[in-house]
From TrEMBL:
Residues 20-479 form the Aldehyde dehydrogenase domain. SUPFAM superfamilies: ALDH-like. The keyword Membrane does not apply. Belongs to the aldehyde dehydrogenase family. It comes from Aquimarina hainanensis. Gene3D superfamilies: Aldehyde Dehydrogenase, Chain A, domain 1 (3.40.605.10), Aldehyde Dehydrogenase, Chain A, domain 2 (3.40.309.10). Pfam families: Aldedh. Keywords: Oxidoreductase. PROSITE patterns: ALDEHYDE_DEHYDR_CYS, ALDEHYDE_DEHYDR_GLU. This is NAD-dependent succinate-semialdehyde dehydrogenase. InterPro entries: Ald_DH/histidinol_DH, Ald_DH_C, Ald_DH_CS_CYS, Ald_DH_CS_GLU, Ald_DH_N, Aldehyde_DH_dom, Aldehyde_DH_Superfamily, Succ_semiAld_DH.
Length: 486
């Protein structure tokens, strides 16, 4: 499919209570293609009142949706999954147009996102309770798991499809209803999912999408409205802290998947070629704009030179360009502000003695493109050590001992993803246990999968998405004590 605004998946109205809606004044905001800053679409720009209506619709729908059997909910989710797979290419092109990532990578995200819907279609049938040995002869103790209620999901622009399905699928499987606020940069993927949800037979009010350029107003309604019982957010730690505070007044359950500063450690006994491959897949996916991207690469001093030479050669093979063109592996930054941020990081490193091995400049392809970059001769005074880079910059630091590198890796308030390469069996256990991160990739740079619990510790948040644990944040545990049994 070439871009065609007439495709049914290409929706520009918000989706509330089973209807495609706009505000009374037909207010809209533009969705910009980061490839060339052209306007892709003008999307409904809703506010507080429309958000309140979406919440009320979700609340009404909740009372019927939660009463459906697990099998009934499972069938709806399964159909939604099948429709996503059927329309992979169309969904991927919409994603590439609004977000910029290469088309092959976008297709990978669609399949990854759909896998959560498939997984939780099955998990819907497995929300088991327990019978617990009682404390008295005439008592019986039972636990039940019940849906928490109406859920709010605020999702980011870097994975505009998968971050929605990763939240919505377990919520719906549990029996909850959802109001989604997608990022203003990338609302079209969310609306395409809503269209397919409608076609899958998911009842009105169960899945709602509120599009808006006023994130503050919509966010405040989602966090302060007492009908919302659970908030799931993926985004920056700074915004996450604000949302947590706003949820406190109504004591909502919250899940936070926040910022990261992932270390990537290469020990002296590592397979250097495999480690380089791991850096490429971890660092440069989505032009470095992922929360689990490698940030600080720590290489043992004995192999640093060899590793850096091989990494530079691998980076040179990356192709920067329009994500819709075949063979492109690096697309644009999401906007000019993001480009200026990574440019500032490189300038700071160079000013403090860092060396640009490769790249380090804007690309002539377009306003939002930055060349894949490799920096070395770095130290802890530089911003690339402390900041979440969120761009195509590989920053290589040197280390001497295991103890030293563990200290450096943990020297951050963040604790989302981490990676290391090495062969020593005992060291693998020591390092894996010592790293203060919710996820550890060992001899691999790609750790995201539906089957495993995704999430962080420290200021990277709390709660887990995916896997058998992914339903827990959308369920309440109820204890029943039955007496009088003689």
């Amino acid at each position: 499919m070439k871009h065609n605004s007439n495709t049914l998946l290409f929706q520009t109205s918000a989706y509330i209570d089973g209807a495609w809606v706009r505000d009374a004044n037909n207010k809209t905001f533009d969705v910009i293609n980061p490839m060339d800053d052209s306007v892709i679409a003008s999307v409904a720009d809703l506010g507080k009142e429309e958000t309140k209506k979406a919440i009320e619709a979700a609340n009404i729908a909740f009372h019927d949706w939660k009463m459906k059997t697990a099998t009934e909910r499972s069938k709806c989710l399964r159909k939604w999954f099948e429709l996503q797979i059927e329309h992979v290419k169309e969904l991927a092109e919409i994603l590439t147009l609004e977000q910029g990532k290469p088309l092959a990578e976008a297709e990978g995200e669609i399949r990854y996102g759909a896998s959560f819907v498939e997984w939780f279609a099955e998990e819907a049938k497995r929300t088991y309770g327990d019978v617990i040995p009682a404390h008295a002869r005439d008592k019986r103790i039972i636990t039940l798991k019940q849906p928490i209620g109406v859920v709010a999901a605020i999702t980011p622009w870097n994975f505009p499809n998968a971050m929605i399905t990763r939240k919505v699928a377990p919520a719906l499987a549990a029996g909850c209803t959802v109001v989604v606020k997608p990022a203003k940069n990338t609302p079209l993927s969310a609306l395409a999912l809503a269209y397919l949800a409608e076609k899958a037979g998911i009842p009105k009010g169960v899945f709602n999408v509120v599009t808006s350029s006023d994130s503050r107003a919509v966010g405040e309604e989602l966090t302060r409205n007492p009908i919302i019982r659970k908030l799931s957010f993926t985004g920056s730690t700074e915004i996450g802290k604000i949302l947590i505070k706003q949820c406190a007044d109504t004591v909502k359950k919250v899940s936070m998947e926040l910022g990261g500063n992932a270390p990537f450690i290469v020990f002296e006994d590592a397979d250097i070629d495999k480690a380089v491959e791991g850096v490429i897949v971890s660092k440069y996916r989505n032009a470095g704009q992922t929360c689990v991207c490698t940030n600080r690469i720590f290489v043992h001093e004995h192999i640093q030179e060899e590793f850096t030479v091989k990494l530079a050669k691998a980076i040179q093979k990356l192709k920067v360009g329009n994500g819709l063109e075949e063979g492109v592996t690096i697309g644009p930054m999401i906007d000019h502000q993001a480009l200026e941020f990574v440019e500032e990081l490189v300038e700071d490193a160079v000013a403090k003695g860092g060396k640009v091995v490769y790249g380090g400049t804007r690309s002539a392809i377009g306003n939002n493109f930055y060349t894949p970059t490799l920096l070395c001769n770095l130290d802890t005074s530089m911003k690339v050590y402390h900041e979440e880079i969120f761009g195509p910059i590989a920053a290589v630091f040197s280390f001497q001992t295991e103890k030293e590198v563990i200290q450096m890796a943990n020297d951050t308030p963040f604790g989302l993803a981490s990676y290391f390469y090495g062969k020593d069996y005992a060291r693998i256990w020591r390092v894996a246990e010592a790293l203060e991160y919710g996820m550890v990739g060992i001899n691999t740079g790609l750790i995201s999968t539906t089957l495993a619990p995704f999430g962080g510790i420290k200021e990277s948040g709390f709660g887990r998405e995916g896997s058998k644990y992914g339903m827990d944040d959308y369920l309440e545990l109820k204890y029943l004590c039955i007496g009088g049994i003689e």
